[in-house]
Design brief:
CATH topology: Porin
Shape: globular
Distance between the termini: 45 Å
Strand order of the largest sheet: 1-2-3-4-5-6-7-8-9-10-11-12-13-14
CATH class: Mainly Beta
Helix content: 10-25%
Number of domains: 1
Largest sheet: 14 strands, antiparallel, barrel
Number of helices: 8
Structural class: mainly beta
Length: about 400
């Protein structure tokens, strides 16, 4: 048996499947980095960007930081029936009898889930540090997978496996009529392992291997995100705009992956025998957004946000691009606090909560991804947990 990818194989049940020789189809908009805080509020975060994740959501937010923050974390998330689908295929592949009986068992297991979508996300131990005007991050392993049983009896399978190193820098511009403007840039190097293929019932019955290192396309990219944040000034003596002043609005925009080029080469970190191949590009997109604070009451405060994201992406439409969210803060003491969040992302409800006790943080979120076409949207709902420490 050929060597399987260590560790990731356990998470993605590599031993359950194998590939046919034709490409899979995916209409999902892949996110390079995800924050459970942002996901809980509909992934509308462009104009918030006030924590460590600003390095990847909007580097301009680094300019408004007043202190440093170190986050060490790892994530694990999947659709609710991800493991069930895995077990069904595994059991069918182990069916005793003739090859025809085994193929029929796999055929039936796929048919039973036809029209559904299954996904998973694993982000291995990683670290991000942000300070006043700068930040640095290293994410050794970020894996996302999408599996869609489809006709002719097959599973469309798409996987991304990214290793990312990023450095960000930001500064404020000269105030104009007391308005505050900041800009920032995050340079990044991303090594990507990628596949998108379709697995049919005959292949699944004949060989239980899902993917080998030789199946992965691999390449590295050097790219950058450029962001801006604008905080308008409203005179204190102007009652007409009193509500505007209380809301303390912020507006933001980001151009992500400005280079948008093919892979520069292969580092062969995943597939040692790979020639120079072309994994899926990072893809240039534009995100724009706004943020509105609402007055603090007792131990609670919070904000509302609205973004239009992934403009220019081939799979973009207004449904997939619209993100709306609300966040409610609560604080008992400086070392015991948290947040509740709700939102709308790509047409689907999101919800999340965070709790911080001293240095330890727990984030839990559920969110939906639209993996369908414009005329036939399809939800892939994931449940994700992040365990982290903040210093």
């Amino acid at each position: 048996m050929k060597k399987l990818i260590p560790f990731v194989g356990v998470f993605l049940f590599w031993s359950q499947f194998s590939f046919a020789a034709y490409d899979g189809v995916s209409y999902r908009i892949h996110q390079q980095y995800q924050s459970p805080r942002a996901l809980g509020m509909g992934n509308a975060f462009v104009a918030v960007a006030n924590d460590y994740s600003a390095l990847f959501y909007n580097p301009a937010g680094l300019a408004f930081r007043e202190n440093g923050e170190l986050n060490l974390s790892f994530d694990l998330g999947a659709t609710e029936t991800f493991s069930t689908f895995s077990k069904d295929i595994s059991s069918a592949s182990d069916t005793k009898g003739t090859e025809t009986e085994k193929q029929n068992a796999v055929f039936n297991a796929i048919q039973k889930q036809y029209g559904k979508s299954f996904g998973g996300r694993l982000t291995g131990p990683n670290g991000i540090y942000v300070g006043q005007g700068w930040g640095i991050g290293f994410i050794p392993l970020d894996v996302s997978v999408e599996l869609t049983p489809n006709q002719p009896i097959a599973v469309n399978s798409t996987l991304y496996m990214d290793t990312t190193f990023a450095f960000g820098w930001a500064d404020t511009l000269k105030e104009v009529e007391n308005a505050k403007v900041a800009w920032g840039i995050t340079g990044k190097m991303v090594n990507r392992g990628y596949f998108s293929k379709a697995v049919d019932a005959i292949e699944l019955a004949a060989d239980s291997n899902f993917v080998k290192t030789s199946d992965l396309k691999e390449g590295y990219f050097i790219d950058a995100d450029i962001g801006i944040l604008y905080k308008p000034h409203v005179p204190d003596d102007d009652s007409l705009y009193s509500w505007f002043r209380l809301a303390r609005p912020t507006f933001g925009a980001v151009i992500k992956n400005v280079v948008d080029a093919d892979a520069m080469g292969s580092l062969k970190l995943i597939n040692k025998n790979a020639d120079v191949s072309k994994p899926a590009k990072l893809t240039r997109v534009i995100d724009i957004g706004s943020r509105w604070e609402y007055p603090a009451m007792w131990i609670f405060g919070g904000r509302g946000t609205m973004d239009i994201k992934n403009i220019l992406h081939p799979a973009f439409n207004l449904r997939k691009g619209l993100h709306i969210g609300f966040e409610f803060d609560w604080t008992m003491t400086t070392w015991w606090k948290g947040n509740y969040r709700v939102g709308l992302s790509q047409g689907y409800l999101t919800a999340g909560l965070s709790a911080m006790f001293t240095w330890f943080n727990l984030d839990v979120v559920t969110y939906g991804e639209d993996v369908g076409t414009y005329s036939s949207p399809k939800e892939n709902r994931l449940f994700l947990t992040r365990f982290s420490m903040n210093f």
